[in-house]
Amino acid sequence: ALTIGIVGLPNVGKSTLFNALTRNNVLAANYPFATIEPNVGVVNLPDPRLNQLAEVFGSARILPAMVSFVDIAGIVKGASEGEGLGNKFLANIREAEAIAQVIRVFDDPDVVHVDGKVDPSSDMETINTELILADLQTVEKALPRLEKAVKLKQKEAAELTAVQAAQAVLERGDTIFSSIASDKLELGYLKELSLLTAKPFIYVFNVDDAVLGSPERQAELRALVAPADAIFLDAKLEADLVELSEEEAREMLEMNGQEESGLDQLARVGFHTLGLQTYLTAGPKEARAWTIRQGDTAPAAAGVIHTDFQRGFIKAEVVHFNDLIEAGSMAEAKSRGKVRIEGKDYVMADGDVVEFRFNV
Ligand code: GDP
């Protein structure tokens, strides 16, 4: 499954946020075959297109795409050296596809801060330093082997150059992910090393209502982490929201000047960070969003529904969501020539509404 690991210092609100994520499991009931592990929380990706699609097809139910989150134990100074839960922590984090780092911005004299004061940039530095040190160990271990392999012409010199460039980035205290563009890092050559800081990062600032209402303060915090994505939420508010009905939750968000819950934001940004997109299927039974990677072809997309669909793929009948809604019905979209027959090389677009033809 596509998962995002949640990390952060102790007492920053990780458990509070994670409990909101797991209590949000309304959806798990819709996916009887999905085994939800106790440390996994699932959020549905908000997608207003599904409601419109269900209207056009008279679909009985709606199944949005989901994003999963894994709770990874808190990290403390020295984790890269095996302090505390160090090694277990690093193993868990290696398995996640992206990292959501929770950072405390809220002030509360009743909640102790491990380092004595609330300081977002210092906290980020602590976490990132541990991840960077762990990566440096990995790189330093790999380099002698790689140098030898290049000498024996078993590996390309370009690979060595790429790993050395990564080493330089880590040595100056930056993460790989934040330096991809500036240092022209060749991620392809680094893949084998599974570097922690090469994973996409999302920064989750756990704030109070003052910051929720202050675009200026948010811009300052955002600048600390650019070019990574940042979201702002109040973990305590999120925990309350999941206890409410949809309508009550919307009212409470409005009262706090928010258009979207933090969990919804987290799902949306996580989806974007992971390089994912959705395509849609619809019929009288259900209107549904399916998760694929940007750049996936039609057979790969079919395979997400069932491996048989991919193996026996013949063609796909595709209409873009916007064209379908403009036409108002499948029949009208067809008569307007908006429904295309696509073959196995077709690269899917976000919002394609698809029916697959396949051999069984
Ligand atoms: P973790 O150690 O990172 O998992 O942190 P917890 O989720 O256990 O939170 C630590 C304490 O901070 C708990 O008492 C929470 O109720 C409190 N807390 C979490 N988020 C917020 C928040 O947004 N505002 C305030 N005031 N307290 C929070």
Automatic annotation (TrEMBL):
Chain residues that bind ATP: N11, V12, G13, K14, S15, T16
One Pfam family linked to the record: YchF-GTPase_C
UniProt keyword annotation of Cell membrane present: no
GO terms of molecular function: ATP binding; ATP hydrolysis activity; GTP binding; metal ion binding; ribosomal large subunit binding
SUPFAM superfamilies: P-loop containing nucleoside triphosphate hydrolases, TGS-like
Organism superkingdom: Bacteria
Limits of the TGS domain: 275-358
UniProt GO cellular component terms: cytoplasm
Domain OBG-type G: 2-253
Keywords: ATP-binding, Magnesium, Metal-binding, Nucleotide-binding
Gene3D superfamilies cross-referenced by the UniProt entry: 3.10.20.30, P-loop containing nucleotide triphosphate hydrolases, TGS-like domain
UniProt xrefs under PANTHER family: OBG GTPASE FAMILY, OBG-TYPE G DOMAIN-CONTAINING PROTEIN
Family membership: Belongs to the TRAFAC class OBG-HflX-like GTPase superfamily. OBG GTPase family. YchF/OLA1 subfamily.
Protein name: Ribosome-binding ATPase YchF
